[in-house]
Amino acid sequence: MTAQTPDFDTRMARAKFRSWHRGTREADYTFGGFFDRYSPRWDEAALVWFEALLDEDDVDVLAWAFGTDEVPERFQGEHMTAMQRLDFVEIPR
Hints:
Layout: H1 8-20, H2 25-38, H3 44-54, H4 58-66, H5 78-85
C-alpha cells in the first residue's frame, strides 16, 4: 500500500494553516499575511516554493524578508521580492 500524494487544494489548506501557526506573532503575520495576499494566484511551482520556505527556521525567513540577511539562491526571485515588500502585514490593534 502506497501513500497517496495530497492534491493541490489539500496542500494549500495545509500551507495556510502552517503559515498562520508559526509560534510567534511576527512570523504568523509575515507568513500568514503573505499567504493570504498572494496564494490565490499560485500555481504548483509557487506552492512548492512556499512549502520549502515553511520548512525553514522562522528566524532565517524573517531575516530574509526584513532584509537583514542574504536570501539563499533557492529562495530568491519574484516571491521573495513580494515577501520583502511587507505590504501584506496588517497588525490588528
